[in-house]
Amino acid sequence: MPKKILEGTIISNKMPKTVVVKVGTPKVHPKHKKRFTGFKKYKADTANNVFEIGDRVLIEESRPISKDKKWIVKNKV
Q1: Total domain count for the chain?
Q2: pLDDT tens digits for 35-75?
Q3: Which of 2, 14, 57, 70 has an alpha carbon 20 to 30 Å from 22's alpha carbon atom?
Q4: Residue 44 in contact with residue 22, Cβ under 8 Å?
Q5: What is the pTM of this model?
């Protein structure tokens, strides 16, 4: 089974070796049929903190690194 890859924006880089990535997913309301974007935040591991807030990055699913970190930053878009 291939690993999931998501694209998002870094919203925090204050933790050592960890960034928080905000990923948006387009959705449609079931009753009103209006389109909107749902957001979810993921904690991702970085080998070295070279990423800044606002960078667009690709994150890839991995084994659990800690309680919350289950993603790794692949590269900058």
Answers
A1: 1
A2: 999 999 999 999 888 999 999 999 999 999 999 999 999 99
A3: 2
A4: no
A5: 0.89
